[in-house]
Amino acid sequence: MTALVRAAIEEHLDIVRYLTREGGADVDATNHRGGTILTRAAAEGRIALVQCLVEDCGARVNAVDRDGDTALLKAADERHLDVVRYLAVKCGADANVITTRGTTALMEAVSQGRIDIVRCLTEECGASVDVANGSGTTAVMLAAQSGNLHVVRYLATECRANVNATDKSGNTALMKAAVQEYFHVARFLAVDCKADVNITAATKAAGSFDVVRFLVDECRVDINATDISGATTLMSAAQHGRILTVRYLVDKCKADANAADKYGYTPLTKAAANGHFDVVRALASEYGADVSTVTNTGTTPLMLASRKGHVEIVRYLAVEHAVDVNAADISGTNALIIAAQYGHISVVRYLAGDSGADVNATNSTRTTALMTAAQYGNTDVVQYLVTQCRANVNAVNAGGYTAIRFAAEHGHKVIQRFLTRFLIVHQADDLETVTVRPVPSDATVNKAPSWFIHPSEISLVSFVETGNIGGEYKAKWLDADAAVKLFVPDASSHVTFEHEVHFWHRLRHPM
């Protein structure tokens, strides 16, 4: 810390003047964030120090830090009206400087709800009310989404801010107020300011019953019209779980409960995907929504509920409406495989244990729920499918992968070791049908074999350990003790079964 900074912090103004005038101290020197003594003083609202730095020491009022903030912006953000007025009115600080965040001093004041600073900046400092930040948001939009009606009214009526301006997502101030459920702001913009009211506004407003009812009853919005994505107001209300709004739209406005957007999503689909059980039940049981509707990718509401772990909705659709739990999307993926991928054990338990879902069903790549759970490291799902549902551990998909291979490739050692035991047991059951592989005894695996042991002569006794290459069984070959190694290659290697056997043979390991 320099002497100048210390003097400024302790507000020894005479020392500050001396150090900058006589001592050669740089009043505009910056800290590690690019801030100057002036920007700090402005942020802290120390008007006397600010005046001293500007008038007596020649500090630059428009100096910016690494975030693009000036002293004026700092003062506005921290709600120091006297500093704002001094810097902007007396010192001519630029009120329209835009920070690296895309904000202005006016936007900072609006965000703070400080109508006094807003007035000062617009009336005395020439701040532009329609400047937009990086996302296209203007000051009146910020005020609307914050519910500051007095600021919205001032900007719209006295400053003539453009209430129909849109941000980069196409949202207006009215839409932003509707999304945040500020009915009083939305009503003011629609009635007093004659802001454009369209279906997009109604869709955005779906979270607020009061705003939707106002737009329908007083603004005569067509409730079945769609926005650019094909979504209706009912879809938005269902997506956000607004049961009161859903009932109003269907009962009074006769909204179409089976309308679909451009992606094939219906109100029921959106409600199921977001876990809104009461909305799903109302749409399905009271309003005749199609429970087996599919999206453009063949996904059903039950699949979407499974993806998010909404077991109550999954159970309701399967039990009350007999939805097919084995239905698959265009990739052949069913609800059980989806739940296994995302690790939703409660959904897996219900589908596999209670609803009769096929645990060995495969998708278009012949991948099962067990393989999927092993790939994504969902240990509890793997254990349940194997121990409780007798999922086929030895199944191989189109790429030649088993569940244990998926676990090995993705580094899920716990799953790999768990599956090893069951893989060996299943292989032992089929021991008589194993194709006999000759085992080479010499140094080159490509030469003709000179010996082998028929699998039928091996009797497995007990599983004793797991290791990097899989596992080991105590066994009997005729009357001799033997060790049987399970070969599960490391995912990063290309070692073959023959190479591994040759390795053990060279070490004189019992076979």
What would your notes on this structure say?
The protein has 27 helices and three strands. It has about 500 residues and is mainly alpha-helical. Among the domains are: about 1-130, Alpha Horseshoe (Serine Threonine Protein Phosphatase 5, Tetratricopeptide repeat); about 310-430, Ankyrin repeat-containing domain (Serine Threonine Protein Phosphatase 5, Tetratricopeptide repeat, Alpha Horseshoe); about 435-510, 2-Layer Sandwich (Phosphorylase Kinase, domain 1), CATH 3.30.200. A hairpin with a 2-residue loop joins strand 2 and strand 3. Helix 3 (about 35-45) runs antiparallel to helix 4 (about 45-55), helix 3 runs parallel beside helix 5 (about 70-75) and helix 15 (about 235-240) runs parallel beside helix 17 (about 265-275).
Which terms summarize this structure?
511 residues, mainly alpha, Serine Threonine Protein Phosphatase 5, Tetratricopeptide repeat, Phosphorylase Kinase, domain 1, three-stranded antiparallel sheet, 27 helices, flat, Ankyrin_rpt-contain_sf, repeat
